[in-house]
């Protein structure tokens, strides 16, 4: 999902390397878990391996996720086959109109491709990475954000002393973005699960596990988009909406959410 564009060795603030490495593994596990489960290997990883991996890492990192992990184990073990997992994922996160947007910027900005997305992309660039063009979604997808957090922790664990620091830490990124949109994401996930009658659903306890970890690791920072007062943006004109729809469809995404009263079908 991300590719490194700056390979120069850099150092971030000193911290116990083992704890940083374990955090990198933990967030990378969750990043993979929130990608579409397209293969039997994805199904096996989520249903047979993930609970043990998260449990071991959480124990060593002192994350209080025992109840959430038990709920996840129960849901994962009840999934019959890869198709059932993919259907659950699609019903929650993909099928338009998706009841649970998996792009964090929607919760922060109220729309796709807003200022939060640009702020995240700026963080990626400043730290020498960018979204891999083969990943067919936007830069604020949950999995991209979590992979970036894992990258920051891994760099922190491996960085030799005496080199220049990265521009931000994993804790700062967690505080600026996931910490702010995760509560709304979890609420929507629980509501959709109840309303749609989705069971078993491993993603709700996974989201709670993530929320527990973020609550412990995030560094409180000011809202990166609230440094100055901004006037309300003007309504988007039809030409802009059509251009946004074109970009989304080139990336294999639905543009149905861009419809509005009186606007002809977007093609």
TrEMBL record:
UniProt KW Chaperone keyword: yes
Keyword DNA repair: no
Alphabetized UniProt keyword annotations: Chaperone
Record Gene3D superfamilies: TorD-like
Pfam families the UniProt entry points to: Nitrate_red_del
Protein name according to UniProt: Molecular chaperone TorD family protein
């Amino acid at each position: 999902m991300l590719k490194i564009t700056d390979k120069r060795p850099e150092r971030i603030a000193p911290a116990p390397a083992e704890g940083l490495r374990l955090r990198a593994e933990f967030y990378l596990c969750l990043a993979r878990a929130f990608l579409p489960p397209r293969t039997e290997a994805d199904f096996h990883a989520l249903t047979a391996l993930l609970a043990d991996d998260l449990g071991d890492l959480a124990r060593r990192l002192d994350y209080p996720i025992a109840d959430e992990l038990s709920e996840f184990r129960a849901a994962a073990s009840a999934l019959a086959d890869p198709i059932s997992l993919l259907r659950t994922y699609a019903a929650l996160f993909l099928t338009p109109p998706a009841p649970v947007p998996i792009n964090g910027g929607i919760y922060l900005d109220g729309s796709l491709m807003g200022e939060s997305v640009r702020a995240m992309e700026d963080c990626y660039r400043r730290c020498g990475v960018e979204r891999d063009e083969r990943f067919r979604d936007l830069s604020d997808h949950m999995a991209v954000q979590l992979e970036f957090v894992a990258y920051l922790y891994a760099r922190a664990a491996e960085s030799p002393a005496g080199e220049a620091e990265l521009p931000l830490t994993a804790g700062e990124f967690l505080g600026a973005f996931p910490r702010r949109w995760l509560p709304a994401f979890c609420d929507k996930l629980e509501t959709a699960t109840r309303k749609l009658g989705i069971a078993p659903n491993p993603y709700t306890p996974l989201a709670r596990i993530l929320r527990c970890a973020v609550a412990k690791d995030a560094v409180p920072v000011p809202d990166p988009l609230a440094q100055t007062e901004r006037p309300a943006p003007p309504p988007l004109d039809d030409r802009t909406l059509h251009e946004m729809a074109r970009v989304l469809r080139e990336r294999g995404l639905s543009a149905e959410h861009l419809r509005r009263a009186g606007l002809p079908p977007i093609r």
